[in-house]
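Translate structure to sequence.
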């Protein structure tokens, strides 16, 4: 009996050591890779403003609702939100993430182990969160970036390719009462969320897609914003 207990204790110890080592390696890799910078392209003209916006954990990409290149309201209908007046809506913030987190976790107190486990190991589905704003003001948590038309076209292509389409090529609206306010809506998304591809990894890749300064890789929002702190 004592021998069995020793074996169990030894196995538990090895498991704990493995978990601690894996977490340490993950955090070390996240720190090192996020400090490596992908440089921005040389800009010939900054005709269009976009923003990166964080709530302290999650990064959104903010783009004009409508310009000569893309009218997002033609696909992401205002009617999917509860906005009473859309005449002064000028900006659209898009964020990608785990569907369970978005729809089942309104606050951190609501976080379930099963939701976190599925998200960490790519076992769940993903969604895009669309939020409309009348105005966006640059701040420490909201950085303005100027890009040209060619770069914006590439960004639009990246964002649009993140939406899951139905058989008719239309984006798929998610009818839910889990909205964060009267100015947002959710849509089905492509891809799998995991500890290696997070909401911030997605936003970081969006910046890469249009030739902007970005991390080589990051799982977190802070390293992205450090690139734009100067």
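Result:
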């Amino acid at each position: 009996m004592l021998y069995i207990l020793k074996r169990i204790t030894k196995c538990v110890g090895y498991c704990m050591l493995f978990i601690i080592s894996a977490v340490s390696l993950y955090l070390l890799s996240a720190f090192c890779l996020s400090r490596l910078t992908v440089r921005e392209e040389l800009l010939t003209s900054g005709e269009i403003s976009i923003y990166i916006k964080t709530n302290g954990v999650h990064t959104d990409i903010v783009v004009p609702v409508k310009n000569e290149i893309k009218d997002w309201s033609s696909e992401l209908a205002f009617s999917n939100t509860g906005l009473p007046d859309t005449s002064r809506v000028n900006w659209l913030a898009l964020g990608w993430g785990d569907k369970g987190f978005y729809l089942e976790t309104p606050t951190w107190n609501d976080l379930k182990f099963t939701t976190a486990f599925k998200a960490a190991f790519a076992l769940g589905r993903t969604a895009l969160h669309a939020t409309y704003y009348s105005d966006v003001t640059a701040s420490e948590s909201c950085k303005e970036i100027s890009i040209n038309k060619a770069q914006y076209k590439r960004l639009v292509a990246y964002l649009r390719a993140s939406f899951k389409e139905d058989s008719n090529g239309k984006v798929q609206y998610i009818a839910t009462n889990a909205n964060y306010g009267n100015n947002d809506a959710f849509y089905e998304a492509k891809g799998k969320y995991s500890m290696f591809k997070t909401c911030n990894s997605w936003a970081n890749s969006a910046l890469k897609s249009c030739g902007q300064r970005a991390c080589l890789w990051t799982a977190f929002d802070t390293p992205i914003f450090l690139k734009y702190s100067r």
